[in-house]
Amino acid sequence: MTRFSSLLTAASAVLALSTVTPVSAQTVSNAAQVQSGNYAVEPGHTQVGFSVLHFGFTNYFGAFSNASGTLELNAKNPSASKLSVTIPVASVQTTSTKLTDELKSAQWFDAAKFADATFVSTSVKLTGQNNATVNGNLTLHGVTKPLTLAVHFIGAGVNPMDKKYTTGFEATGTLNRSDFGIKMYVPYVSDTVTLRIAGAFEKQD
């Protein structure tokens, strides 16, 4: 094969690759088109982030992982949807090993005594095409209080990795940790806690 022929073959291969349609996990961007049904939390891509104002200097961030739970999703009648999530408190992580261990102690979350935090929805109200307000009860540190989450639909489709139909949401909310008996260093470390949640759910039926 001549050098020219080799170059031509290589160029053809590059051109062929450039025309391949990239695989996309997100095939639906309108919440009304999501498949209704029963879903389970996909823990590997579900994160519960939180932040507090630290001594008035910085917003300090942490996160929980390994969530589990269920979503009964009704795309035609979103108000009939139901969500229940459990988060192991001992999964808490920060950028400081010392602080992470401290947060698990009795002074803070007391993970040995109160192993799980749970959120169970009580109502879902659509506020836009891809947005909803989800009210529910949060149980944390042995105390149950109402919590409101502003939820935004991200997308849904078949995950190209595991071939499972998956839907994802982002949620934000705030709470006062003293309402749950977690009062260490208030007000120097803010009472108000901001939540930012990435939730992934896999269809079960």
Automatic annotation (TrEMBL):
SUPFAM superfamilies: YceI-like. Keywords: Signal. Residues 1-25 form the signal peptide. Gene3D superfamilies: Lipid/polyisoprenoid-binding, YceI-like. SMART domains: YceI. Residues 38-202 form the Lipid/polyisoprenoid-binding YceI-like domain. It comes from the Bacteria. PANTHER family: PROTEIN YCEI (PTHR34406). This is Lipid/polyisoprenoid-binding YceI-like domain-containing protein. It comes from Acetobacter okinawensis.
